[in-house]
Amino acid sequence: MDLVAINLIDGLFYGLLLFMLSAGLTLIFSMMGILNFAHASFYMLGAYFAYQISLYLGFWAGLLIAPPLVGVLGALIERYGLRRVHQFGHVPELVFTFGLAWLIEEVVKFIWGNNMMAYQEPEILKFALFHIGSNSIQAYKVFMIFTSMAIFIGLLFILTRTRIGLIIQAALSYPKTVEALGHNVPLIFMGVFGVGTALAGVAGVLAGPSLGTFPGMAVVLGSIVFVTIVIGGLGSLWGALIASLLIGWMTTAAASSSFQFATLLEFFGMTPPADLDESYLRDLWTLSLPQIGPILPYIFMILILVLRPYGLFGKRDA
User: Fold this and answer.
1) Taking the CB of residue 154, how many other CB atoms lie within 10 A of it?
2) Distance of CA 105 to the CA centre of its chain
3) pLDDT per residue over 282-294, tens digit each?
4) Residue 129, φ and ψ in degrees, nearest 5
């Protein structure tokens, strides 16, 4: 039971981190129809900005200042970059964001170098909040969990219960009508892109001390974010949350499992070949669940695309 509880908490931690990343990408896609390949790069910038600020003002100042900085940078990129290529279709947008991701990574390397930064959680949260068996649960991890949940509740409230949320949703479906009512739709688009990148910045600020702040951190989580929003359904905030949690629990459970595929093969009546060491089936008989844990989300995504192409919470095309 202790192992199950630890897996649930670790999966919740990782899943909600993925949600903070995928929530911003979901907002951007649902509003503008743009799959931003550079989204994880804004996550990396959030961590680096917060690290630099923390050297002078401390962790909490970095948490408050870095995400708005990332959001402003994202809004400027949308205004003076993406908006200019948007008229030429989705392929130029994808090429633009793909190139932007490489540019941001090179700029980070040029300014901060290739080494991992000594970015750490605040001293006030450097203690074990409680124990499960012989395992300690750090206060910073619990802080991240509750912060992510607060962000989800805040986004859901803004999008469904406030006037600005209604305008954003109306601009998604009826941009011409919203513009005719006197609202500046391009400004709304720029604001949504800025908020989406700021959410990625928040994820970077919080994840940097736990997962490391280094130039390749965007690559580590970049692809899995797209997997998350495909599984959840493009444009669905609830889908992003559920898919993030499923992936978090799936990967953490697989990493801690001792299951061997030889057991499954023997259950179906198969026996290992006599010359197992020289057989092409050797890898299959020696394969374990932790070894394939990192690819389980991709396998899950393929199954979702086959059985429900629009995702768990996505809307079927009319």
Assistant:
1) 10
2) 17
3) 666 677 888 888 8
4) -75, -40
Alpha carbon distance 100, 78 (integer Å):
12
109 or 93, higher pLDDT: 109
Stretch (H or E) spanning 184: none
Amino acid at 262: A
**Residue 133 domain-assigned (yes or no):** yes
SS3 category, 67: helix
pLDDT tens digits for range 204-214: 999 999 889 99
Cα 218 from Cα 215, distance rounded (Å): 7
Q: What is the pTM of this model?
A: 0.88
**Residue range(s) defining the domain that contains residue 104:** 2-222+234-256
Q: Characterize 53-65 residue by residue with b for buried, 16 or more Cβ atoms within 10 angstroms of its Cβ, and e for exposed.
A: bbeeeebeebbeb
pLDDT tens digits for range 134-188:
788 889 999 999 999 998 898 888 888 888 877 877 776 677 788 887 888 888 8
- Secondary structure tally for the chain: helices H, strands E: 15, 2
Across-strand partners of 135?
132
Residues 294, 251 contacting (CB under 8 angstroms): yes
Whether the Cβ atoms of residue 203 and residue 278 lie closer than 8 Å to each other: no
Spatial CB neighbours of 204, under 8 Å, sequence gap ≥ 6: 42, 43, 44, 45, 46, 47, 48, 50, 66, 70, 217
The answer to whether residue 98 is domain-embedded is: yes
Residue 102 in any domain: the answer is: yes
272 within a domain of the structure (yes/no): no
Q: Kind and range of the H or E element at 135? A: strand 135-138
Q: How many domains does the chain have?
A: 1
The Cα–Cα gap between 72 and 54 comes to 19
